[in-house]
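Q: What would this chain look like folded?
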Amino acid sequence: MKQIQYILVGLPFSGKTTLSKAIAEQLNIPRVNLDEVKEEMGFKGVSDNDISHEDWTKIFNETDRRVVEHLKKGQSVLHETSWTKR
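A: My prediction, written as structure tokens:
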């Protein structure tokens, strides 16, 4: 079976995480969440506006790396992110 990257994009506080968890559970696939990656990288409680462009690049690169890792393993993955200018 061919792996698929499902992308869920929406405005902050629009219910993306709740929906992505339900979809990932229903499809039995891993999910990669931009906010969770951001927090894991040490930015928990930090306003998005207070994160430098360089750090945003690192956060997005790590998120992409995780998605690619799942795809390379032959897994479909749900990629949840925010609609952002960054």
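The CA atoms of residues 34 and 60 lie 7 Å apart.
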